[in-house]
Amino acid sequence: xxxxxxxxxxxxxxxxxxxxxxxxxxxxxxxxxxxxxxxxxxxxxxxxxxxxxxxxxxxxxxxxxxxxxxxxxxxxxxxxxxxxxxxxxxxxxxxxxxxxxxxxxxxxxxxxxxxxxxxxxxxxxxxxxxxxxxxxxxxxxxxxxxxxxxxxxxxxxxxxxxxxxxxxxxxxxxxxxxxxxxxxxxxxxxxxxxxxxxxxxxxxxxxxxxxxxxxxxxxxxxxxxxxxxxxxxxxxxxxxxxxxxxxxxxxxxxxxxxxxxxxxxxxxxxxxxxxxxxxxxxxxxxxxxxxxxxxxxxxxxxxxxxxxxxxxxxxxxxxxxxxxxxxxxxxxxxxxxxxxxxxxxxxxxxxxxxxxxxxxxxxxxxxxxxxxxxxxxxxxxxxxxxxxxxxx
Length: 392
Ligand code: PMP
Ligand code: GLN
Fold this sequence. Notes:
It is a single chain. The chain has two domains: 15-39 and 282-389, Aspartate Aminotransferase, domain 1 (Alpha-Beta Complex); 42-279, Type I PLP-dependent aspartate aminotransferase-like (Major domain) (Aspartate Aminotransferase, domain 2, 3-Layer(aba) Sandwich), CATH 3.40.640.10. It has helices at residues 15-25, 42-54, 66-80, 95-107, 124-130, 149-155, 178-190, 230-233, 248-259, 267-277, 281-305, 323-329, 335-346, 374-389; strands at 29-30, 90-93, 113-118, 134-139, 160-166, 194-198, 224-229, 242-246, 308-309, 317-321, 348-349, 351-352, 365-369. By secondary structure, the protein is α/β, with parallel strands linked by helices. The protein has 14 helices and 13 strands. A seven-stranded mixed β-sheet has the order 2-8-7-6-5-3-4, with helices on both faces. A four-stranded antiparallel β-sheet has the order 9-10-13-12. It has a two-stranded parallel sheet with strand order 1-11. α7 (178-190) links the parallel β5 and β6.
């Protein structure tokens, strides 16, 4: 029989699902896949339930409910001083993943070069390859994750159609600085290309940092689309409500890709997310500050266990170097193996950072997720401590 598609055939199951399954199998505390263990605001749940019962429950407009598109436009103005026409410059999607898929499909022509920044979120590479892109990578490495001019020079060419930027970055937990964004913008202008900006962690920045969308940099308004997710901003990862902001020229073909992917997103969830986006400053402050406290709690615990903790500026992830512990325990410097061992023997699950890289990935880093109840974080640290000190 004829072969099925070469990108997806034989592709392994994503690392997040693999580690969650393994955690379940071993009844291990799951600090692997990123999802909060407490749901988001109750008023949003209530509103979603009310709209579900009272309707509307039929197809919303293809671009999204006006209430949510207006709310996304208002949030762009409120947080970033961006003027956005809700009618032509906002599209609602079923999660940021759909938004990424639509954007890549709509902007890439087979043979175009696409610049991806490693470490890579799981869907970027397969989606780019499926669209026929020739992928060029820029590699960031822990602990500094620096974006250098040399790496950009090596990746960009006249054939570059777009760069995909994840900011704040998962798993680097990095907010790109204004200088780095300005450098990237200079390449985007020089090579006349676009940027898809995955900004799902826009509201999860710590230590008084504020997120800077690349779209707000000079001459970037018409070259960038930026993607947000209610999963991250409101702690409802299962809802899969995303939104794209971009100029009409770019959003129009992206909406056509959406039209033939999902066409729409459940109306009750759209209404609830519209209400959520209008929440007061206290909500947004508490969201980031609450996570910052959890970051500090897990970071000091992991440090006491003997991990070398890398700074986390944003997101809900901490990357650590486990070299010292592996040496103590006589384990190889192999992050996949290390994650399996701690799941089975310590009862705590993390994600190997090499899963976010192509060939020759660093092997001594793992990622922990800290958007969990304090007692869960404490229990995880205790179990790791017990495992490390046991029968050395
Ligand atoms: N981009 C990044 C960087 C992510 O970490 C995630 C995971 N939540 C997504 C996109 C996907 O978001 P969604 O669940 O809204 O599809
Ligand atoms: N974004 C989440 C993470 O990085 C996982 C999302 C997923 O499992 N698709 O862990």
